[in-house]
Design goal:
The structure is a single chain. By secondary structure, the protein is α/β, with parallel strands linked by helices. The chain is about 35% helix and about 25% strand. It contains 10 helices and 10 strands. α3 (about 100-110) packs across α4 (about 120-130), α3 (about 100-110) packs parallel to α6 and α6 (about 150-165) runs parallel beside α7. The longest helix is centred in the middle third of the chain and has 14 residues, at about 120-130.
């Protein structure tokens, strides 16, 4: 039986008086890629950010319900959110490398956690860059500023930076929307490799991307999960008419 990484029950989220998520119930399986699809403003990214409590940083947000990660409710007041965000890493829509060297981008988080040994940091930088399929590109210029890299390389650097924190989950919020087709393909190939080690959730507006990279797909509409199934079933035999209209481009 496959391990459940997140078990979400009756999740509601409000921005002030506006309800952005409505009674969500979903089980996210470990070591699989789950795609979150749906029109803009339907709650995909908001849901993604509940999984590492990034929404806590927004004024006026109220959340109720349960999100159990490995059996523990991460919405509990007792949860250390810094620790949670170490376990649940995030890669954003636009690459956001720190304005420092490639090496320091990767080493920054581990240093903040108290790792000072240069040999340990060297090994961590190398293994993280290798895991992000970037080592061969940058091994001879680790001390160069990361801002000089291409967009696709910067995004892979951000993935390597997340990996360096030894997470269990990687959240990706439209990670290829700012990239060209070649860089997009490299990120997609990387996602396929990374799922062996990590549980991955990806928000995407591209139906082709969702069908290529994900094992499971959730269709969001107006803050609700309308349909959740294997990606194969969602794309070949959707049960809901709205899902079918959305994935075939007839929605609206």
């Amino acid at each position: 039986m496959e391990e459940i990484k997140f078990d979400v029950k009756n999740l509601n989220l409000f921005y002030g008086d506006f309800q952005a998520l409505k009674n969500l119930n979903i089980e996210i399986k470990a070591n699989r890629v789950t795609a979150l699809i749906g029109p803009s403003g339907c709650g995909k990214s908001t849901f993604l950010r509940t999984l590492n409590r990034m929404n806590d940083l927004v004024d006026g947000v109220k959340t109720n319900g349960e999100i159990r990660m490995d059996g523990k409710n991460i919405l509990s007041d007792k949860v250390n959110t810094i620790e949670l965000r170490t376990k649940v890493g995030m890669v954003f829509q636009k690459p956001n490398p720190f304005p420092m060297s490639i090496y320091d981008n990767i080493a920054y988080g581990p240093r903040c956690q108290g790792i000072k040994d240069k040999k340990v940091l060297d090994e961590l930088v190398e293994s993280s860059l290798k895991a992000a399929a970037l080592w061969d590109d940058v091994k001879d210029r680790l001390n160069k500023n990361a801002m000089g890299m291409s967009g696709g390389q910067q995004q892979r650097l951000c993935i390597a930076r997340a990996i360096a924190m030894k997470p269990e989950v990687i959240l990706m919020d439209e990670p290829t929307s700012a990239l060209d087709p070649i860089a997009t393909q490299k990120i997609e190939e990387l996602i396929d490799v990374l799922k062996k080690e990590y549980t991955i959730l990806i928000v995407t507006h591209s139906m082709q991307q969702a069908s290529r990279v994900s094992d499971d797909t959730a269709f969001f509409l107006l803050g609700e999960i309308v349909e959740f199934d294997t990606t194969l079933n969602i794309f070949s035999n959707p049960k809901n008419k709205k899902t079918e209209e959305y994935i075939t481009g007839r929605f609206g």
